[in-house]
Amino acid sequence: MDMRLMNDMEDYQRLGLNPKKVEDWEAQRRSPRARNAWETWTVGATLDDGTLLDITYATKDPAHIGSADDAPVIDLTLTGPDGTVTHATRSIEADRCTFGEGGLDLGFDDCHARGDLRSLRLTATDLTLDSDDTSAISDEAADDQTADGEDTTAGETDDEDDAPYTIHGTGFDLHLDTQARPLRPATGIFDYGHDARSCVGWLSPMPVATISGTIVIDGMPRHVTGHARHTHEWGTIAPSDAWNHVLTVTQRFHGMTLTLVDITGAHRTGYIRYPMIFLTNERGILAYSDTLDTHCHSTVTGTATAGDDEGAPYPTGITYTFDTPDNGTIAYTLADTEPLGDAATLRYATGAFGLKKHHIDTIRLTGTGTLAITEPQGARGRHAIVSHGTVIQSDDTPDTTDTTVDSYDDPSLHATTTTYKGPAVATFRITGKQFDVRHAPQIVTEYVY
C-alpha cells in the first residue's frame, strides 16, 4: 500500500485547495459518514499553572470507527504537574449534532466549537467524570477562583461579542486567539491509494494561540490562561491501517515556535515516513518548513515501554537534523522523556462483524527539547532563519545560547550555531508494536508546487 503526501498542482485543483494559503473553510468537516471514516478537532494547551489541557471534538468515539454512522463525543483531559489526571467525556446522539460550512462550526447538542483561523470559542457542559479526582488543576488556581467569589455550581462568560454560557457539572467555556499563521504541509492530505478515497488529513489552523476562560470540574469553576495549539485531523481509513506511530511536539523558544510532527506509515506502507518540521518567527510567520525524509536524518538514542514490559514503546531520546537550502542545518533533540500519567489505550474494531481488533496507545511525554540552528556567517543577523533562500530576522535572546564558529580557510564557509534549550511536552501515538523501524523511501511526484 502506498502513502503519498499530495503535493502537485493536480492535487490542489482536484481538492479545491489554495496552494498559497489556508482558507477558513478548511476547518469545517472534511470526512464522510462512512465505515472507517473519522475526524477530530483537538486543542492541546499548557496552562500557566503547569497543567496540560486536551480537548477533542470527534465525529466518532474511537470504539465506533468501524461503524458507518457517526458517534460524536467530546473529550476533556487535564493532567496536573504531578501527573494527576482528570478525564471527562460526553457522548451525543448523531441527530443532535450539526456541522456548518465556511469555517469551524460544530454543534454537539448544547456544546459548540465555533470560529475561524483567527479566533475560536469552545463550550461544553454536562460532561461525565471518570472518577471523583478533581485535583488536576492546582489548588492555587482553585483558591484564586474561590477568593474571587465565583459561583461554584456553574461557570459563565459574558463578553461583549459572545452570549453567556452556563456550565452544569463539568465543562468549559474557552477562547483561543491565534498568534501564528496556519500550518498545512502541501495539501495536508496523505493518499493511501491513487485516488484519495483512502486518505488521512492533517492541518494546524492555530499552531500557537493564547487560551483563556473557565473550566468547571464537578461544579467547581476555575479561570485558566495559557498557550495552546489547535489541530484538525480526519481520515477515511482506520488509524491502524494508516500509520504506525505519530510523534508531535510543539515548543516555544521565546519568539520562535517549533512544531514537529513525525508520521510513520503502517506496516503495509513499508513504514514510509514523513518527518514534518515547521518553525515560525516572533510575528507568527513561517520561517522554515520541510517534509522530505531525504532532508532529515534522525537518531533514536533510547526507547522504553509505558507501564510494564508489555506496554507501549516510546522514545526516551531522539534527534532530528534537517538540511537547509543554504547548507546549514536545523536540529531538534527531544531527550530524557518520561510518561506523564498512564498511557491511554483506545480500542476499536473494523472489518466484517468487527473481527479485526485494533488499538491506539497515546502517551504524554515530558522532557528537554533542544533546538540548534546552524547557518553560514553570510546569513543576515545573528539569529537569522533561512527559508527558501529568504532570510528572516529574529532578535530574541534564547534561554540557553551556545554560539560557535567553525574554522575553515575559506571565510565563506564559516558557520554559526545557536542553541535554544527548555522543557518540552510531546504526544506520542502508536498503533504498532515497534517504534524504531526501518523506513521505506517517500513517494515523491515529479512536479511539486
TrEMBL record:
Stretches the record annotates as Disordered: 133-167
Compositional bias annotation for Acidic residues: 140-163
The name this protein goes by in its record: Uncharacterized protein
UniProt source species: Pseudoscardovia radai
